[in-house]
Amino acid sequence: MSSLQPVRGTHDLLPEAMRRHRAVVETARLIAQRYGFQEMATPIFEFTEVFKRTLGDASDIVTKEMYTFVAGGRADEKDSLTLRPENTAGVARAFISGGLAQQVPVKAFYAGPMFRHERPQKGRQRQFHQIGVELIGVPQPQADIEVIACGAHILEELGLSDAVVLELNTLGDPASRSAYRAALVDYFSGHIDSLSEDSRNRLERNPLRILDSKDEGDQRLVVEAPLFGDYLNPESVDFFAAVREGLDSLGIAYRLNPRLVRGLDYYSHTAFEFTTDRLGAQSAVMAGGRYDGLIKTMGGPPTPGVGWAAGIERLAMLSEREEPAPRPIVVVPVSEAVATTALKLTQQLRHDGFSVELGYSGNLKRRLQRANKLNARAALLLGEDELASQSTTLRDLDSGEQELVSLSSLTERLSRLA
């Protein structure tokens, strides 16, 4: 091979991109901490059964998009492992296996890579990164409000409030969902010849997924489909009203979207997405909802939960926020005679808390050119005269001024640089 390239659907986070990536993560981590979410991390691969239980055996993610392999080349299905396509399932598995049911509410924040075998396009990669929060153990609508408020706060801190719209819907409780599911099956069964093949396959198994079909024929039928709101019982109506009132009281604007759904039965009540029109086809930048049936589905005790996940790449593309690169101090040995002293000085200044680069080679002009390329704040010129007087010439690379500074007072002098 004449040239090596990253695998299709993956990308390198080179320093400039990494600074934007980190700005998103650090901003989210800071804001999530204020809301009481504690950071945790789960393995990037789980037993395949974790995702089959949570995402459904017949879902597109499980059947088409997961990276699944057998550990150690063994053929036993129980050894089947999958790179995580999302992280809620991993957090829920950790809640169960970690015995956290006695510690509710559990408030978790995470950040890390996910993997899906999809057709790559702008804002969608096969290895991508997400931030997310999960609030487990609180059945009241206040949990939904807090989770959404945390997401809105992160987007605000990233300067994206004007770039996104919060779309909101309710999926009701299980009784409401069952009534609506029956109504959808009845409606679409009357138009089965007009449905796409995918939607015909979903009709009995997962009819709510038909509502977000991208097929034009399906979309025409969806326009006339029953609305979830017509099948909500009083308890579900009251829950959604409480969520909306809470968001109103916090000044968090939203747009009702009765077609916003989640296809799996363990979802209930609140569903929401922060969407944008600035990323082409990939409009969702943060999506979440309440999943009161998830942990029971996975074999744990009945435990309510609500959370969201957001794509770091998409947020970084939208936000102009970038973690600033530190402006280093550059130590420039003028001759080989002072090379060892320069090395020691470099290390000492690093221990004193400064970002320091060593001018490795080349004449003085070339070393100073490299200092400017690094956007260094100052250069420390160290020659034999400076060595004899236990001092260094400090050149301010912003003003061009320079002065002789004793090594004993150097740390204090550098701390005064703007």
Automatic annotation (TrEMBL):
<keyword id="KW-0648">Protein biosynthesis</keyword>
<feature type="binding site">
    <location>
        <position position="130"/>
    </location>
    <ligand>
        <name>L-histidine</name>
    </ligand>
</feature>
<comment type="subunit">
    <text>Homodimer.</text>
</comment>
<keyword id="KW-0436">Ligase</keyword>
<feature type="domain" description="Aminoacyl-transfer RNA synthetases class-II family profile">
    <location>
        <begin position="29"/>
        <end position="333"/>
    </location>
</feature>
<dbReference type="GO" id="GO:0005737">
    <property type="term" value="C:cytoplasm"/>
</dbReference>
<dbReference type="InterPro" id="IPR045864">
    <property type="entry name" value="aa-tRNA-synth_II/BPL/LPL"/>
</dbReference>
<dbReference type="InterPro" id="IPR041715">
    <property type="entry name" value="HisRS-like_core"/>
</dbReference>
<dbReference type="Pfam" id="PF13393">
    <property type="entry name" value="tRNA-synt_His"/>
</dbReference>
<dbReference type="GO" id="GO:0004821">
    <property type="term" value="F:histidine-tRNA ligase activity"/>
</dbReference>
<dbReference type="InterPro" id="IPR004516">
    <property type="entry name" value="HisRS/HisZ"/>
</dbReference>
<dbReference type="InterPro" id="IPR033656">
    <property type="entry name" value="HisRS_anticodon"/>
</dbReference>
<feature type="binding site">
    <location>
        <begin position="266"/>
        <end position="267"/>
    </location>
    <ligand>
        <name>L-histidine</name>
    </ligand>
</feature>
<dbReference type="InterPro" id="IPR004154">
    <property type="entry name" value="Anticodon-bd"/>
</dbReference>
<dbReference type="InterPro" id="IPR036621">
    <property type="entry name" value="Anticodon-bd_dom_sf"/>
</dbReference>
<dbReference type="GO" id="GO:0005524">
    <property type="term" value="F:ATP binding"/>
</dbReference>
<dbReference type="InterPro" id="IPR006195">
    <property type="entry name" value="aa-tRNA-synth_II"/>
</dbReference>
<feature type="binding site">
    <location>
        <position position="116"/>
    </location>
    <ligand>
        <name>L-histidine</name>
    </ligand>
</feature>
<protein>
    <recommendedName>
        <fullName>Histidine--tRNA ligase</fullName>
        <ecNumber>6.1.1.21</ecNumber>
    </recommendedName>
</protein>
<keyword id="KW-0963">Cytoplasm</keyword>
<keyword id="KW-0067">ATP-binding</keyword>
<feature type="binding site">
    <location>
        <position position="134"/>
    </location>
    <ligand>
        <name>L-histidine</name>
    </ligand>
</feature>
<feature type="binding site">
    <location>
        <begin position="86"/>
        <end position="88"/>
    </location>
    <ligand>
        <name>L-histidine</name>
    </ligand>
</feature>
<feature type="binding site">
    <location>
        <position position="262"/>
    </location>
    <ligand>
        <name>L-histidine</name>
    </ligand>
</feature>
<dbReference type="InterPro" id="IPR015807">
    <property type="entry name" value="His-tRNA-ligase"/>
</dbReference>
<dbReference type="GO" id="GO:0006427">
    <property type="term" value="P:histidyl-tRNA aminoacylation"/>
</dbReference>
<dbReference type="Pfam" id="PF03129">
    <property type="entry name" value="HGTP_anticodon"/>
</dbReference>
<comment type="similarity">
    <text>Belongs to the class-II aminoacyl-tRNA synthetase family.</text>
</comment>
<keyword id="KW-0030">Aminoacyl-tRNA synthetase</keyword>
<keyword id="KW-0547">Nucleotide-binding</keyword>
